[in-house]
Amino acid sequence: MTAAASPVAAQEQPLRDLTERFAAARAGYDAAALEATLAPDYEEISPVGTVDKRAEVIGFYTADKKAPVPPMTADEWAGAARGDVAVVTLRQSLALPGGQTRALRVRHLARREAGKWKLVSTQYTPIPPARP
Asked: What Gene3D superfamilies does the annotation carry (predicted)?
């Protein structure tokens, strides 16, 4: 007998899928996938504090601007939906040359539009390296 997925897990899966599609679109410089993932009113706060509108974000990730992307992992994922709005928080780690790692806390705000989740806002906050 197979256990049914819990209501919480069923609610989280579309949000996990959304954040994974977003990360893959950025890493692959796939502007079309970003367009499909971002709400029309999307804006992003970068790790250095700049605020970028949807068009700016998509424009940065066009194929002609593709650059090498360091290996990234995501963990500490937590998400919850309340009606047609959801908040997702995770830690994203980047492997840098020389064995160093940098980590960011990422907060996404998503909204369900016509039955599909889209990102409305993302904020990246650097996590300071551990002190020796």
From this structure: 3.10.450.50
